[in-house]
Batch of 2 targets.
Target 1
Amino acid sequence: MAGSISLVCIGQHRPAPAYGCLDSAKMRLSNSARIDPMLPYSLLRPLLFTLDAETAHELTIAALHRFGCLLPAAPDATEPPVRVMGLDFPNRVGLAAGLDKNGEAIDGLARLGFGFLEVGTVTPRPQPGNPKPRMFRLPAQQALINRMGFNNHGVEALLTNIRTAKYKGILGINIGKNAFTPIEQAAEDYLTCLDKVYELASYVAVNVSSPNTVNLRQLQEQAELDALLGALKVRQGELADKHGRYVPLALKVAPDLDAEQITHIADALRRHRIDAVIATNTTLGRNGVTGLPHAAEAGGLSGAPLFEKATAVVSELAKALANELPIIAAGGIVDGLKAKAKLTAGAQLVQIYSGLIYRGPALVRECVAATWEKP
């Protein structure tokens, strides 16, 4: 994560010890040696913010990968599960895609109390993403700007990490296209990823809304979206027959949509019987951050300034869809009240990412408590 949420090894630049969770029993750690993820994040954030945003992100993922097994397990749910997309979620609060693109820290992240995790965005082949620097904090507004560009190790590396993880909860896998794949051939990349991740996914999210891959958002246009969703739905049916289980498909859309575009997207979702929509990705707008350091950087804006725009899209989609399929809301959730507001706008689940940079792991539990009951 850009600001980092890890409570171990952040700021350390020496190599981590060459042992993992499977060897931790040999260490005979006492309970007192375990790490409390709810330690005051405000004490750690100033240190983390001395690091470049992407460096802090990478160190966090590495720390969660190495030492996530030392975090105490999240408490068991005390409320009935929430059924969405035919899946039973232990709570309504999930991790948004983008934090753990390669599925390297699944077991550590699972201990923070999320009801579900979404990894990726992953592409068929590895790619480095856009040139650095490409991630910037705007602390005055609890915001981020990034132009990462789907940097990831490729779908095969992701699958290896998922198979290694012990996590048995709900896992979404977010798929995209390689930057060098022509937009006219984008469907082939999405189908390749769907084929490969289907067996290990609880649901698959189709990312056509990142602003950091050239022309990607063109896939949200009426004709292109219709063709892509049609191809994915046919392949979903074939894979369900092959594997003997139905894996839901969710479409992730942008916040920078007008009313007509939202109507067209809602119609396509219904027509192709897509299982859910994720609203929203980052925005190209700069409302709320104009004039701040880094505000002029190219890329998608996330965090608190995105809340109003993203929530408006949730509300419009809810009206257009008339409860025919569920909405997973993301964008600007920096406290429990904002998570609750997403449900009021029409969502059934929420996802957080940028808020963790400014609030730390306590944000997860706060949002879970705020969203136990849907309005």
Note: The longest helix spans residues 222-243.
Target 2
Amino acid sequence: MDSPAEKGVPRGGLGRSARLASIPLGFAGRAVGDWGRTLVGAETDSAQTLARNAEQLFAVLGTLKGGAMKVGQALSVYDAMIPAEMAGPYREALARLQTSSPPMPTADVHRMLAEQLGRGWRERFVEFSDEPSAAASIGQVHRAVWRDGRAVAVKVQYPGADVALDSDLRTLERFSRLFAAIFPALDARALIRELRDRTMEEVDYRIEADRQRAFAAGFADWPGLRIPRVVASAPKVLVSEWLDGVPLRDLLGGKGSEADRDRYGHTIVETMFASPARVGLLHADPHPGNFLVLADGSGLGMIDFGAAATLPDGIPPVLVEILSLTAARDATALDALLRAEGFLTPEAETADVLRWVGALADPLRVERFHFTEEWIARQGARVVNPTNRAYRETGRALSFPPEYALVVRVLSGWMNILARLDCTVEARGLVERWVPGFVH
């Protein structure tokens, strides 16, 4: 049992490691084998076993919050590439990590507000709801009314989240085999290391506030998109304008009207590619909880700017060139570029990157592209199949340098989400407009 002081976020490294160890690692080795057999039509573990493992994964990561929960969130956006019979149980469990976790005790919420906003913090609000309206990896959100009458969202960091985040991301490297079993195409250890390097700054909400201000200013006139203005900020408390709406994930699976899904898909793609040019930043936390379908029907609201890639000169030119060559199906030039820039190891003599992942550039080869789960599942069946020759010869030889990994993860994450949204987008035209150097 946790002591009262530990109910917010368990902090002890030994205790947290023990909880992580309770995840059923015994099934990890079997899952890799079952993965290959699934893709060739053989029998897999029982649905009951998969469901039980998924529930335990959710229970442990959700209770730990911090880095463990953040890794679950990062992985959950890729489940569209996983065969349905394997992904089903994990999809529901991991998706819940995007907003669900045990709430922080009210006394801890009040203590954090007093520490961050001053002992007279209540005087800043006309109303403050002690019941959290949403939860994230390192904090939870409360609805309130600011002293000027504006409805606001108050994000309060869990006590000890900074210590827990660092502890989790270090400890989780030892458990990367579990995540690799569920998502074989990912270098889970590298993903966790990159998350550790990039996300520790998320514990300072003042950094997030500065990013949010930059996005709000840069997209103030953007049709179909609203970014809430920052009202007040402190290292562990962030107060923003409240947006009424429901998470975009409520539309996944083809829900809602086709016209609305297409409109939202357009906004997501254009915002993603335009933001480096307009504000020098790329929102780096791709999951459908970070966009809200606004209640007034005006479009989408964009939230949560804790993770962002700083791109003052836009998307790196080498990534733009890779994108252009892949879209143009120029295998020879693509191979030469990847070797010259260190994306392929010298010993990868038989690498054929275009054959392995080239179809992922399909959205850039036509005027309008229909993102569907069937399409992304076909790509996943090839890209993440360990029995596939291209996977063995190319997938294991291809490595994105650390300075590019985050951008690639964002692009691939949103591609999976767009497929689950089931939308049609003029992606090529948007890339041509906002990404200098892209040629197709």
Note: Residues 220 and 226 are 7 Å apart (CA to CA).
